[in-house]
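Entry:
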Amino acid sequence: MKKPAAFSPVFVMNTYYTGIGIARSLHGYGVDVYGLSSEADAPGIRSRFFKGIYHVPNGRDDPKALCEKLIELRRRHDDAPIIFPTRDFDVKFLHDHRTELSSLYRIPQNSAVERLLDKFVLFKIAKSHAIPVPATVVCNSVEEITAALSILRFPLVVKPRVATQWRQKGTWEAVGARKAFLVNSAQELRTQYQQISSVSPEVMIQEYVEGSDCDMLFHK
């Protein structure tokens, strides 16, 4: 397919499966897609769907260096590239560095970013609009968890309020490389909390809704 002159180049943050999917979809329309990767062995590094790969600092570990690299990369393109984030960290990075990057890149609007990333804020928004949601609390100590158990029913899902809380360097390993986990008793909840509270004292606890496999993606 011939590439229309109106298409801007696209930068995809990270070349894992989501990034490859974005590149494959846009490649079919003749869009020039460039992958941004901090890992030399990421799955999409050799993908034919990327016109090029730019090796950049990891936005999780060194966001300032990534911002500086993006400012440098902008000079290689005549038209302002569109940036596609693929992780919560990428969304937060673009939100935090909007002042430096918004005049150089086409970046998604940020008015709802913080509300979308904060699961407890989303819960409160749903409640305010009478949307059915499981009972949910945020706790910062064993004492708060004990108090919350009077209004919650097991089984419960324990997760970070914001996904990036558990994705920080060192924290991910401490929480057992889990996005969330299921507990079936008060004792199990307290034990699990004591294991992770030293690195992440704030947790969100939510009643688990029974369902088929397609309803249980929170812990896949």
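Residues 216-220 have pLDDT under 50 and may be disordered.
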